[in-house]
Design a protein that fits this description.
The chain is mostly helical. Helix content is 73%, strand content 0%. The protein is built from 17 helices and no strands. Helix 4 packs parallel to helix 8, helix 4 packs across helix 13 and helix 11 runs antiparallel to helix 12. The two termini are 25 Å apart. The N terminus is likely disordered.
């Protein structure tokens, strides 16, 4: 079966929704000290909780990764395929960010050091590298954190799947989540103090429940057995426990809605039409490099455009800036990444 025929295109549309939510969060809500409009949009629920688009990315990854491992014969091939998918854009975007940082000097994280490229291309978060090498690794892009979580999931789940079986892999991933969320709740209630390693453990595994929900959704998508539907419900409800420390009912509700959207897009043809549209599929196509590039560049462009074109309405500043970054992401996704992947395949 060809890749194109075998592709579930609605997933591309869902990726488009996920990155749009993240763009809204970064463009309107989180960087109020830098926006020319300050905290004007802080009460907009869509913007305030847009960061939860990352959880939608995790749901999609759980679905796609289980589909991928079931079509790959060995752990080595699986890891190689994932690395070939992630590394080219990460390297290209990291170099673009580093080389253009002087122009985008308004970046919230400032102009980065060369060594700040290392965590991204190694897919290891800054804190772990700082523990290992006993030196600081300044943040290149804060958004990279989710890639570090994803790679941990790939390695652990892939190892358990190929060493044992699918069931053991999913249970293992879910147990890592449960221990992380239990630890988080106990720290929240001050049963003990959080250490640096606890923080790393929780940060690594607190989102693993979403990968399991996505993987179970793939199984149900394949066979429609009712027991997997109820497993999806149970796992999704359990995964919502990670919001406990925030004590935020709106956040909880927002995540429930994202889970419902994810499920309906896959199982309701009428609902899925929206995410099969050209717009959402295009945004989904460029979502990976757009995610890598956007945060600091977005804020800098908002400031630059406002300074040079003050007549542009404040509400449109993130939109115009996102379109500019989207063009760069399109060039990366359409031309640079495939070229680099072809070159790597000849070497590896």
């Amino acid at each position: 079966m060809s890749e194109k025929k075998d592709r579930i295109f609605v997933l591309d549309g869902l990726r488009g929704l996920a990155i749009l939510l993240v763009l809204l969060f970064h463009g309107y809500y989180i960087w109020t000290d830098y926006y020319p409009y300050k905290n004007l949009y802080e009460n907009n629920i869509l913007f305030k909780y847009g960061s939860l688009g990352v959880q939608l990315f995790f749901l999609i990854s759980g679905f796609v990764i289980l589909m991928s491992v079931e079509r790959t014969t060995t752990f080595f091939k699986f890891i190689k395929n994932r690395w070939m998918r992630l590394f080219p854009s990460m390297l290209i975007c990291s170099l673009i960010i580093y080389c253009t940082a002087g122009f985008f000097y308004e970046r919230p994280f400032g102009v980065p050091d060369l060594k700040s490229i290392l965590p991204g291309i190694l897919f290891i978060n800054n804190g772990i590298l700082e523990k290992i090498f006993k030196t600081d690794f300044p943040v290149l892009e804060l958004s990279f954190w989710s890639l570090f979580v994803e790679v941990k999931f790939y390695v652990i789940f892939g190892f358990l799947y190929y060493t044992f079986n699918r069931k053991v892999g999913l249970i293992g991933i879910f147990l890592l989540y449960l221990t992380a969320v239990l630890m988080q709740i106990l720290i929240f209630h001050k049963f003990f103090s959080e250490t640096a390693w606890m923080k790393i453990y929780i940060g690594s595994f607190i989102h693993f429940g979403w990968f399991v929900v996505g993987a179970l959704t793939y199984i149900y998508y394949q066979n429609r057995e009712k027991k997997y539907f109820w497993l999806i419900v149970f796992t999704a409800v359990s995964s919502l426990a990670y919001t406990y420390k925030f004590q935020d009912l709106t956040m909880f509700t927002y995540l429930v809605i994202l889970n419902i959207i994810f499920f309906l897009a896959l199982f309701s043809e009428k609902f899925g039409v929206l995410f099969n549209s050209l717009f959402f599929k295009f945004v989904g196509f460029i979502s990976y490099p757009l995610y890598l590039l956007h945060e600091n560049m977005l804020i800098s462009l908002i400031i630059k455009i406002n300074k040079n074109f003050p007549q542009v309405p404040h509400f449109l500043l993130p939109l115009v800036s996102s379109i500019c970054i989207g063009l760069l992401a399109y060039i990366t996704a359409k031309f640079l990444e495939p070229y680099f992947q072809r070159r790597l395949k000849k070497i590896i």
